[in-house]
Amino acid sequence: MEPSYILQIHSGSFQNAHTDFRQIKNKVENILTKKKIKAVIFGWHLNQSLNQSILDFFHSKNIACYFWLPVLSEIDLIKESKTITNYTGQKGQNVQVIEDESFSFLCPTDLRNYNHVCDLYQEYISKLDFDGIFLDKIRYPSFANGYEEGFGCFCESCENEYKKYGIDLDYLKDLFMKHDDKLLDGQYDEYGRYIFKDATVDLFYQTRAHIITEFIGNLCDYFHSQDLKVGLDIYAPFFAYHCGQNIYELSKKADFLKPMFYRFTTAPAGMQYEYDAYKQYFKNSSYFDLAPISLTSLEKQCHFLKKAKCDVYPGIEINPIEHICSTNKERFIENKTFFTKYFDSLVCCWNCLLMNKDIKESL
Ligand SMILES: [Zn+2]
């Protein structure tokens, strides 16, 4: 069956517009006449008149609009935020892989960081007639931010939270320092959670996921109270839990999930890229040996998503970008054919303005 599509459009960073209304209209207008478009996700530039024009355009075609809002990153560029502290006590580094996009991460137990998201919504978005909000960067940094950051936040408030759950931090940090295989050894359960064999490591990962679910779950409640639907950007299932995302628990709070099945991206969230960034620190270990972008692995990952309590729309790459995303028509068609076996709707990621002609004709 022909899928319906959700179009994701990057309008710019908080501070800089990367496009204008005319460009967006020109790029998508003929897709709208030919394909079934379920919704549009755009952001995260904050200019109200730009956002109003885009909204009016899609609403005139009866297409629902979600504002794309980064949560635990990017906001530090416009509001004084608390960044994460890694386990060695160092403050988070700013990793810049894609121009004008920050990959520095914020502490998820800090109330001020939470309030910034609501304040930003109230200041810039609440007066516009959005149908929903799409929350992005709802996780800990991955190993793409470096080994030390890959384990998340160890500020005083986060350490207190870990201690509350009985985690032996000295033991854990010793494993980090030794690059111990216990940090890899385990297996997936039927929900896609990775159950570590070592009890302390497992408790640590459970606690991280709990912290993220609470932070994001509260935001879902907040946005629902504003009469908005909520979509969540999550990692591909094989790695979501490693970044603090418990897919099943998050699915109880959201209206839809968009797992980033980025098979051909060599930047954060790229599946092979993230896998390699993690495994490189455990060179001699045979634990966690996967081929995450293979169709066999994808099948298993789709199976995890079947447990979700909300809709799931897989995100697939449609924007070839030199040195960053090597998708093409054949790869797009392979993805489309594969994912439509499991799902009715696909998200065109992550920026439809960069969709090439070949892929556009293959939608
Ligand atoms: Zn923290």
TrEMBL record:
Name of the protein: Glycosyl hydrolase family 10
